[in-house]
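Researcher: Go.
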Amino acid sequence: MKKIAFISSWIAGVCMMASCGVQMLTMPLDTAEDNDPFYVINDKKDSDYIDKFTASAIFLDNLPGCWGFEKDACRDFTVVSDVMYKGVGSLHLKWDKSKKGCDWIGVGFMWNNWQTVDMSDIVDTWALEFWIRTADGDEIGSVPINFCFLDNNSKSTPVISCNSKFYEGFGVNSTWKRVQIPLKNFRFVDSGLNPVEISQLVVSFDGTAEVYLDEIKLVEIKQEEQ
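Model: Structure:
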């Protein structure tokens, strides 16, 4: 029932964004041809070519294809250039779910304007990684942010919260801290998703908080971290 309620809320949210005229921005998606120099020369893949997942960037400096970033009474989500972990921009996220009408607050990131990506080769060995810090000097024990992936049929993985088992130390403060959530925690196959057609990452927010997020991407987990 929780899954059905979540998806219903998500669909309603998308419809609301569309009615408000929110523009879906596009993000170029790397292809195998971009990473195979032999393709340009021979117009075909080299016999030794090994496919590698290249759609790893979710947010680096600019917003890719997304929804849910309009400002309202519940949220104020912007890209800023004065505070960042790396590059020239980060996400400044401020929200308050306790306000009337703020039953569900969320955003979605997709690839190349709703194009799906094949994550079947990485769901057991890669992770969702990002850097986070608070907007002031206060420390929070756990960050009320949740993540899930959706496939092309709007089936959802379990929702994973940003808690201390995914980063070092107890809480999050004004110093940048790396968060790394192994993709296997999302149980893509067990949840009935099609890992060949993943359409977006959905991020939802609980409670009240103000944080910065940067360098949101999919990364291969190093051997010593597994």
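Model: The domain at 2-39+52-221 is CATH 2.60.120.430 (Jelly Rolls).
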